[in-house]
Amino acid sequence: MKILRLGFVLMTALGVALIFSGPPPEASAKYMKETGKKCLDCHTKVPKKGATDPQLTELGKKFAENGHKLPK
């Protein structure tokens, strides 16, 4: 009985670890797919993961101000 319980606990822990170990979703991949634009169209340089300063170009600023939609 203890072996089954231990197995269940280990499998549950493995499942949780797998769920949270994947790469975080990246908006840029979706943006690139939908618009055909590159990261550097909106950024002065490609931001690193977790960067708090996205270093936006004028187009990037307008994109952010427009609810993350291309300005018309």
Overview of the molecule:
The chain is built from three helices and no strands. Helices cover 51% and strands 0% of the residues. With 72 residues, the chain is an all-alpha fold. It has one domain. It has helices at 2-21, 27-35, 58-65.
* Radius of gyration from the alpha-carbon trace, in angstroms: 20 Å
Low-confidence stretches: none
Q: What would the average pLDDT be, to the nearest integer? A: 77
Secondary structure tally: strands = 0
Order of helices and strands: HHH
Secondary structure class reads mainly alpha
Cα(first) to Cα(last) distance is 65 Å
Instruction: Give the overall shape.
Output: elongated
Number of helices: 3
Proportion of beta-strand residues: under 5%
Which terms would index this structure?
72 residues; mainly alpha; 3 helices; single chain
What is this structure's SSE topology?
Blueprint: H1 2-21, H2 27-35, H3 58-65
Short description:
The chain contains three helices and no strands. By secondary structure, the protein is an all-alpha fold. It has one domain.
